[in-house]
């Protein structure tokens, strides 16, 4: 007889398989529903709870940035992004974009690193848009998270952020991109697993958080 642990594992695998098989159809449907998704997300601004929870997530992100940042050769590994993704998941692309932009500016004010570059603010805004669009009001799915992580890490982090970095340093884009691409590709599965665990836990308390 199948125990509870085996049943949970089987249900998870079946759910992920359904997600993979149905991805093309779901992608078309969700793309068509983007205006509705943005409208619903924009409506979250009307709730005081949204402002309060975004403030709490922002404070947690700053704390993690200060105390949970790990130097790794020429790179830095940080978990300050986790509260940001929670905000994107809970409140969607409109809130996620504004939250991301505001947090980038706040972090720069608290700890300036060189000259302020609005390009990096745009990077934070785009990341919030992507994660908010892919995750908002959707079932927590590992493959969905991998999809969002891949879009952000490949095109925004390894692409746009690297271009901005190369421009600032006066270096060639291709001299920086390979190493940054490898780093981001490595982090996709690791960060996806971590975010899946976090969002699965958040789903259990989400109704109480949004009351």
TrEMBL record:
Spans through the membrane: 48-68, 89-110, 116-136, 145-166, 186-206
GO MF, one annotated term: transmembrane transporter activity
UniProt entry tagged with the keyword Membrane: yes
Residues in coiled coil: none
Matching InterPro entries: ECF_S_folate_fam, ECF_trnsprt_substrate-spec
Pfam family, one: ECF_trnsprt
UniProt keyword annotations, A-Z: Membrane, Transmembrane, Transmembrane helix
Keyword Membrane: yes
Protein's name in the database: Folate transporter FolT
Organism lineage string: Bacteria, Bacillati, Bacillota, Clostridia, Lachnospirales
């Amino acid at each position: 007889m199948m125990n509870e642990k085996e049943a949970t594992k089987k249900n998870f695998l079946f759910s992920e398989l359904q997600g993979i098989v149905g991805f093309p159809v779901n992608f078309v449907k969700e793309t068509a529903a983007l205006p509705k998704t943005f409208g619903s997300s924009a409506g979250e601004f009307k709730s005081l709870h949204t402002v309060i929870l975004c403030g709490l997530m922002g404070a947690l992100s700053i704390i993690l940035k200060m105390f949970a940042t790990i130097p790794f050769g020429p790179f830095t590994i940080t978990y300050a992004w986790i509260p940001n993704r929670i905000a994107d998941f809970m409140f969607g692309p409109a809130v996620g974009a504004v939250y991301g932009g505001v947090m980038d500016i706040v972090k720069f004010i608290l700890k300036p690193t060189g000259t302020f570059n609005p390009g990096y603010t745009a990077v934070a805004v785009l990341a919030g848009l992507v994660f908010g669009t892919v995750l908002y009001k959707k079932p927590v799915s590992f493959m969905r998270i991998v999809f969002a992580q891949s879009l952000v890490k490949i095109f925004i982090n390894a692409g746009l952020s690297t271009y901005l970095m190369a421009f600032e340093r006066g270096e060639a884009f291709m001299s920086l991109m390979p190493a940054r691409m490898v780093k981001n590709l490595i982090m996709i599965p690791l960060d996806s697993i971590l975010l899946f665990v976090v969002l699965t836990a958040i789903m259990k308390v989400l109704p109480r958080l949004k009351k």
